[in-house]
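B., you asked whether I could sanity-check this one before it goes into the benchmark set. Here's the sequence:
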Amino acid sequence: MIRADPALSINLQPDKYRMKVMGSFFKIIEWIQKNLKKIGAVCIVGMTFLTVADVIGRFFRHPIFGSVEIVGFMATLAVVSALPYTHKINGHVGVEILVRLLSKRAQAIIDICTGILSLCLFAIVTWRMTLYASTMRKSGEVSISLELPEYVIIYATAFCLLIFTLVIIQGITHKIKELKNK
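And here's what the prediction gave me:
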């Protein structure tokens, strides 16, 4: 019979330790998500100012070269950087007419199931987006007018989708805890 040396044992309860680590991890994800929201807002403001400046420039026959590309890049970043925050506050459009009639437990189960499906979808999209960015980087593809490397925007999109996927995981774990407490 093998006996463990008590001096070598760690006196941490696994559940408490795991909860502390997960709490710290989710705080980091929340910090990133809040900063992504700010980046999205900056992109929207930048798109507005650039579009206004380009329209005024076109009126005086001096358009801003590459403004369409830059606005396109900023629009992409605005959308993907807003996804984690929008999911966190439950700001997506949803059809809940029938779901509202169900019990809280049934609603939580449906939320968990849709969360798992969303997790699977966006995990695959994140993975494929990363592979696509790698392919674009290796090929040396650049934008048409300004010749900016497009893979940078694609990697940024993949990062935002990764954070979105982690926020989905956070939502699923929250719903599971909520379901256990009922």
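One thing to flag: The radius of gyration is 23 Å. Otherwise nothing jumped out at me.
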